[in-house]
Predict the 3D structure of the following.
Amino acid sequence: MSDVIDSPSCRVVRAGEAFVGKQALTYAPGISAEAVGSRGIHLQTVTIPPGARARAHLHEGHETALHVLSGVAGMWYGPRLEHHMWNRAGDYVYIPAGTPHLPYNASRTETCVAIIARTDPNEQESVVLRPDLDALRPAGEDPMA
């Protein structure tokens, strides 16, 4: 559970205990419905070990914004994961609601860390896994930065 320090209308939240989400990535929750009673936003960090990747998924009805703090990530995205992008430290990334995507750490030696904001205050509730898409981009075939 997060260590929450109350003030009259604002709160300081220390990162909660890390957990592995449905997407197979490790998250450290910050702002959420559970931590502070937020109704329209979730903010957390994600850590992707070298060479690791998520499961193909989408966030039903919720937008996502990321800010890459360290490392280099790649991401397949689109209805059939037909598009690809690189995300490097300092980049901001926007993922529209309902967009299938499959992020991965593009480095075999460095950890990738990003801050994620999502319009789902419960974060994992909107996650819809897409195992039908995982086979389109088999593990080990991701281009490396």
